[in-house]
Amino acid sequence: MSPLAPEGGSSLTDSPSNVGEFTVSQISFAVKRTVEDAFGYVRVRGEISGFRGRHSSGHAYFALKDEKARIEAVIWRGAFSKLGFMPEEGLEVIASGKLTTYPGSSKYQIVIDRLEPAGVGALMALLEERRKKLAAEGLFDAERKKRLPYLPKVIGVVTSPTGAVIRDILHRLDDRFPVRVVVWPVRVQGETSAAEVAAAIRGFNALTPGGKVPRPDILIVARGGGSLEDLWGFNEEVVVRAASESQIPLISAVGHETDTTLIDHVADLRAPTPTGAAEMAVPVRSELIAAIDDLARRHFAGLLRYLDGRRRELRALARVLPKPEDLVAVPRQRFDVAAGRLGRALGANTHAHATRYARVSSRVSFGLVQRALETRRRDLDRAGERRRHALTLALNRHRARFDARAGRLRPGLVAARAADARKALNSAERQFGAALLLRLERGRARFAATAKLMESLSYKRVLARGFAVLRDADNVPVSSAAAISGGDVLDIELADGHVAAIAGEAKTTTPKKKPAKAKPEKTKKPDQGQLF
């Protein structure tokens, strides 16, 4: 019985008049069963067309074509994660799976379980095309490559945590120069390998220096040897771009020395093997210690030679220097001469100042000081009157100017500004008055000080100690007995008043000369001695 036989028993081979009715679903599912039974498992060779990456559901939809035909293809999410490489547009592949149909669009398709390149030549062509594209962007330029630090403190390794690669790296680092190693575990083969390696490189670069997880000074991306398909994850564009963006110097150690991947071109340094990457990352500690010890010995020997040379030069220079006594001989003699002149110079200076003082004091008299004080007092009073008069004139002039302007302004604005102007004018008047009073007070204080000075110099202070001033009838002071004649009317001024008197006959007596006192012998000034 045919798969499309109706319930009445007729089939498609029956006469047209006896053909039964079928639904679209019946025909579609019948074709689906027929195709699946006839083509249970097939291998199809073709070129990938219409591949736009994985769908949001995780499945991938595209087509396989050759020069004459085209077949739709689908890879379910579970099978896609097991692929050895990422499908790409235009890549010739061999797809293994089963044929089926999709009743929703009446199309037949192949459900792919396994996908492999159609020979190594196809992968090599794809690899060369990708290499040229990335090189054109400048990702492989030598100017972009960074220098490795000489003594890294932390090394980051991106590799599988279970393979022999990480053990070889750790063993070689421990032999040469033990440092801290941080491992970022990734898959180094399979469909998710490229994404994990790129995420590890970017993750190491995102670490903060001094954080809980230290930021590496060098990155090593390592994997053991394998076929081109096994190493294909390191040819993916996402890995190459992540390596080019790395701010940490990166060493590529993928495969054996003959294996070449795109990450080797973009890395800052390529190692032939993972062990070679460890040797490039750190120096040999024992050799470094020996080199430092040798440099220390050479430095110490050079320092001794330098000090010895400077010591010889110092001794040679010291021999041509003069003696300390010769250096200070002339200053010492000059000091002795100056010290000998100092006593005479001090005496002459004192005598000159005493003579000047006597000459100035003889010209100072009470009448001269009194006349000067009277003149200053009159000048001060006149200046005060002039300043008061000038202040009155200035205030009147400002008031007149203010009143003239006030008449030309609006009443409200004039009132406000007039009030402010009056306040400013009154404030200025008060300040000027205060300044004038302060000036007058200072003048009075200076006058009082001068009066006190005059009083201290007045002869009345001498009268208070019992002396008297004798004047003749013309009120002229008498300073000698020869100027008085008998019967002259005299005025005697004492401390508490005046007394009138008549002079008798004058008697002049020559005072006896007192015997001259013996002059004391001049004592010789003590010698000051020598400073040196």
Explained architecture:
The chain has 532 residues and is an alpha/beta fold. Helices cover 47% and strands 15% of the residues. The chain has helices spanning 24-38, 77-80, 120-136, 164-176, 193-206, 237-245, 262-266, 274-281, 285-319, 324-363, 366-406, 411-457, 460-463, and strands spanning 42-49, 60-65, 70-75, 92-102, 107-117, 154-159, 180-185, 218-223, 250-254, 269-270, 469-471, 489-494, 497-502. It has a 5-stranded mixed barrel with strand order 1-2-3-5-4. The protein has a 5-stranded parallel sheet with strand order 7-6-8-9-10, sandwiched between helices. It has a 3-stranded antiparallel sheet with strand order 11-12-13, with no helix packed on it. Strand 4 (92-102) and strand 5 form a beta hairpin. Helix 4 (164-176) runs parallel beside helix 8 (274-281) and helix 11 runs antiparallel to helix 12. The model is unreliable at 7-12, 522-526 and 528-532 (pLDDT under 50).
